[in-house]
Design a protein that fits this description.
mainly alpha; 93 residues; rod-shaped
């Protein structure tokens, strides 16, 4: 009777040990995944900050005006260059 009890106890102990090893393996695996996810989150934060900086730089009025002058050949609108049309399609006198 005692040997059967010892065998059951030994089997239970081996089962617990295997369960513990498996649990530690899964914990290490999950920790590695967590580290990867955190590294990716840091990289995405850096990219987001860079995109916000790019957006603020590209959207500045002075830059848009400079590109309009240089690339498109646009100039400032002045009252002397403004043409007013009446309903009949002619300029007022």
């Amino acid at each position: 009777m005692s040997s059967k009890f010892n065998m059951v106890l030994a089997a239970f102990l081996v089962g617990c040990a295997l369960f513990l090893v498996n649990t530690q393996y899964q914990a290490r695996h999950l920790f590695v995944e967590l580290e990867r996810a955190q590294a990716q989150a840091r990289q995405l934060d850096i990219e987001w900050a860079q995109l916000q900086l790019d957006q603020s730089t590209l959207g500045k009025h002075a830059r848009i005006e400079e590109i309009a002058h240089r690339d498109v050949g646009m100039t400032q609108l002045t009252p002397a260059r403004t043409q007013y049309l009446t309903e009949d399609g002619h300029e007022p006198r």
